[in-house]
Amino acid sequence: MRAKAAMTAGLAAFSLSLGLAACDRGADVAPVAEAPAEAWVGKDVVLYLPDPVMKARVEVSALSPYVNAATVAAEGAIRTAPVQPGASGMLLLMVKPGGRAKAWVVTGEPAPKPETVAAVVKAVEAVPAPAVRQGPILVGVGFDVWGGGAPPAGASPPIPRDWYAHFSKDGGRLDDAFMARVWPD
Predict the structure, then answer these.
(1) Are 155 and 112 in contact (CB under 8 A)?
(2) What is the distance between the alpha carbons of residues 39 and 76, in angstroms, rounded to a whole number?
(3) What is the pLDDT of residues 168-182, one digit of tens each?
(4) How far does Cα 68 stand from its chain's mean position?
(5) How far apart are CA 30 and CA 48, in angstroms?
(6) Residue 171 φ/ψ region, left for φ over 0, alpha for ψ in the -120 to 50 degree band, beta for the rest
(7) Which of 20, 49, 52, 182 is 20 to 30 A away from residue 91, measured at CA?
(8) In the sheet that 137-145 helps form, which strands lie side by side, from edge to edge?
(9) Please, what sign has the CA dihedral across residues 55, 60, 66, 70?
(10) What H or E segment, with its residue span, contains residue 60?
């Protein structure tokens, strides 16, 4: 029994010394494979319109399940796409009266492949929209895909690059008129 205990202690010490020696060798040791990055990690939810406007236009009890369902749809589309370089960004959800919804994806560089972005938009736009009244709402869901990457350049919270053309030279506001320009009826 004492021999077995001594042998076990000896093996443990030997294993520990190999581990320490391996650490000392640095480049001679094969790196331990890292776990693959999570395909989708949801971050923050951003209301692009003032809180009183949002509360007047949509019930929280309807908006929250919609945002959750849209996020699940986006995550599903990402999980079925081929793994790509990491990206960080915002999924924008605009809902208009009459149950109409549209989605945009804004990321930093490198952006996911266009077919991946199109699959995310298609999946999200298939989610039934909540009832809104008095005008459109705009919500964003921040995300990292495949480990994340550079944040989107420009405004914070981000908007699609082509939206900048809809502002006047003096700037502008993200209001009903602006949203009608970026998504005309």
Answers:
(1) no
(2) 9
(3) 777 778 899 999 999
(4) 13
(5) 48
(6) left
(7) 52
(8) 40-47, 137-145, 87-96, 100-107
(9) positive
(10) helix 60-80
Task: Give the tens place of pLDDT for each residue, 95-142.
Answer: 999 999 999 999 999 999 999 999 999 999 999 999 999 999 999 999
As a whole number of Å, the CA-based R_g of the chain is 24
- The structure tokens listed for 22 are 């391996």
- Facing residues of 137 across strands? 95
Strands 100-107 and 40-47, how do they pair? unpaired
Please give the single-letter amino acid code of residue 4.
K
What's the rounded Cα separation, in Å, for the pair 88 and 165?
A: 23
Q: How many other β-carbons are positioned within 10 Å of the β-carbon of residue 145?
A: 28
Per-residue confidence band for 49, with pLDDT thresholds at 50, 70 and 90: very high
Task: Check if the beta carbon of residue 82 is closer than 8 Å to that of residue 151.
Answer: no
C-alpha atoms less than 13 angstroms from C-alpha of 149 in its C-beta half-sphere: 19
pTM of the model: 0.80
| Contact of 40 with 78, CB cutoff 8 Å | yes
pLDDT for position 171:
75
Residue type, 169: K
CA–CA distance, 138 with 166 (Å, rounded to integer) = 16
The contacts of residue 180 (CB under 8 Å, 6+ apart) are 136
